[in-house]
Amino acid sequence: MTLRDLRIGWRHFLQQPFHSFFVVLGLAVGFAVAILLFAYVRFSTQYDAHVPDADSVYYVKQRFNVDQEAWFDNAPLLLYDVAAAHPGVAAVAASHIKPTGLAVRLGDTVHTVRCISASPDFPAMVGMRTVDGDVAAALASPDGLVLTEDTAAQWFGGERAIGKLVPAEGKTLRVLAVVKAPPANTMIPFQAMHGLRSVMFPPDLIKGIEERFPMIWFKIHVRMRPGASPADLATAMQKAVDSHPMVVGLPADLRARLGDRKAMDIRLAPLRSAYFDSDIGGNHFNPERPYGNPAAIAGLAAVAALILLLAAANYVNLATVRVLHRQREIGMRKALGADGRRLALQFIGESMLVTLAATSVGLLLAWLLLAPFSALVVRNLAGMMTWQHVAAVYAAAVLLGLACAVQPARTALRVPPSRVLTGRAHTEPAGGRRLRLALTVVQFAAAIGLAAITLAIEWQTRHAVRSDPGFDPAPLISIDVHETYDSSARHRALVDDLRRIPGVAGVTTSLDAVGRHLDVLTQPLRREGGVSISLQKKVVGREFFEVYGVRPLAGRTFDARTDGESEWQKVVVNETAVRQLGYPSNEEAVGKWLYNDGHDGKTYQRQIIGVVPDIRFESLREAARPAFFEPGRLTYVVTLRVQGPLAPVEQAVETLWARHFTDAELEMRPAEEFLAYSYAEDAHIATLLGIAATIAIAIAAFGMYVMSAHTVQRRTREIVVRKLYGARRRHVAGLVARELGRLCAMAALIGLPLAAIGISRYLAPFVERSPHAYLALPAALAAGLAIAALAAARHTWLAMKMAPADALRE
């Protein structure tokens, strides 16, 4: 291929600017979508790749079978010592993410940053790079604080951060080190860090950390020596847990309930696989932590490749049709001595010109859309647009350009010069036409398949968000306080002031908001003569059921006038708990006693005073859990019931918050947001698939437009003859519609069954499904047929209006 071939391609490119514009735009949009989706896929598969020798780093995860059956990526701190003493371990580190963040007041502004507490060996474990100061000194000092470079710049501008005093939650910290920020795709993110003896910890917690109290839980990371077995270390950790006095001294009732299971299961998992750990990501107890679904990521990669291939197929169709219109030019070049190699190189040059131009435009579009796309997927993808990635995109474009040139070049090589130069028409070879028909069918099948899956996910997500949670969330507002009601005087003062706001019909507190799983407690309880079962423990204020508008099915709920704030012996249970405890009815459960054996050997009892409907704390992917509600003051969330519009109450809350909490940001949300949070990932996937489906439909519509144009052109003489023998316009329209209808039918037979399989797999984990989910299949087909009809309408109308005399003259 020479520069002359590119010049010829450029001239043809400029001769039909309208056609060339849409060809390049179609490919460019395909490239842009593929670049963004592949950037997201690459981001997801590169979690913690920056950690030195990341493949030798493992994290400890555990499942505490006594109280719950979910896996967590934190473990008792006593396992830190087990790992440190193991001969196969090169290094061990412990860290703990503060769930509420660190609230810092600088001037009149409160900053809340992600903060971790870490052992001295943590920085070396994750490959932390120091910019200024001494990280080791910061972690050893009680008031020491480490900031990332970005956080230091945000707080102090161009001033040096080292030595700055920072007021944080009633304490004063001193910045002693500044480090490079970890990349966005890490499972150990932080903006600030302090040591394990920090003043941010109460003295009893520091003592518990130093004495390795068994119920103090940290993330534990280990770096294995070359050739060492992680399974051997996991076995040693399991033995340490099994022989611990806390486990050995379990009450007989709990041991009987465990059966052959361990009290706690211990496993080691590779750090590089943490983002896709379905054990931890699937327990829904920490929805604000990032976890990826490998099937969803693989699906997005397939969609990205599909969109690019559809755009390429569209270009091949257009380029082949264009070759058919250039038969005289090709015949003339052959007659003047151009051989097959020269013709092939010409069409390869034209294809390369188009694909490289489309790639450049696609990269520009991807760069412009990167920020909104990052916000859509809730991931920071800014680091994905490097020169290496751009080079890889251009390399892929070259390969795609070569592949797209094959069919147009083959069609050109089969043009007989003697036939076309004597004015006799040359039809497209049957093989080439079948290929273009197949490409059009694939385009249409992909479009309606993606549309069907998108509609099903969207409808299921809406159904889940709008499903009855057991109460009306519309008049409720929840506030995260991050200080317990019993230990914080300003928390209690805030609640008292909130009750006086006009429009507030009630105020209550709870350990966590309904629909969120940041603080999940479980308790094994049994009825008299029964076997223990695990019930979720919900610590709530006495006004909880009144504020949420939940009426008892039997018995009563808590009464602020007669029940004490901490009368934990009186409990309310949900319907699922009644069934699993074995009571024949809700009424039979009221007044009965529940028992549990404590670790101290004593037996504790609680009396059921009422039964309420199941309140949906979980998503629809989980069946309702048995739960009991206990009045208490160990609560973090304040919920208000509002009469009338929410806005005036929200403004009044902001004023009261600024008065009581000068060093913390207000986190206030409508209760509906908590219920929708469990389905945020579903909404993101539906949006991404919706964008992909829209582009696929546009490509399919354009392909159908080209196919209808070529159909009318190819069958012009047949249409003329039919008209001469009396065919009416409707007969001509039916002729075109039947041919295109066959294409749509074949596409539906391919796309809809695959879409049905995809919908079935998506819906499988849900215990409650939208009744309209499978209606997405006929809806997508109807939309596809309507779009195909619109795409073919122009050329069908031209065929209907075709004058036989004019057509025969041509």
Question: TL;DR?
Answer:
With 810 residues, the chain is α+β, with helices and mostly antiparallel strands. The protein is 51% helix and 17% strand.
Relative helix content: 40-55%
Q: Pairing-aware structural class of the strands and helices?
A: alpha+beta
Distance between the termini: 37 Å
Tally the beta strands. 25
Total helices: the number is 28
CA radius of gyration:
34 Å
Tell me, rounded to a whole number, the average pLDDT: 84
Overall 3D form: globular
User: Can you summarize the main beta sheet?
Assistant: 12 strands, mixed
Low-confidence stretches: none
Strand percentage, roughly? 15-25%
Care to describe what's here?
- The chain is of the alpha+beta class and 810 residues long.
- Among the domains are: 74-243, no CATH class; 450-468 and 681-810, no CATH class; 483-663, no CATH class.
- It has 28 helices and 25 strands.
- The strands form 4 sheets. Strands 1, 2, 3, 4, 7, 8, 9, 10, 11, 12, 13 and 14 form a 12-stranded mixed beta sheet that branches. A 6-stranded mixed beta barrel has the order 17-18-23-20-22-21.
- Helix 2 packs antiparallel against helix 12 (294-325), helix 12 (294-325) runs parallel beside helix 24 (680-714) and helix 26 packs antiparallel against helix 27.
- The two termini are 37 Å apart.
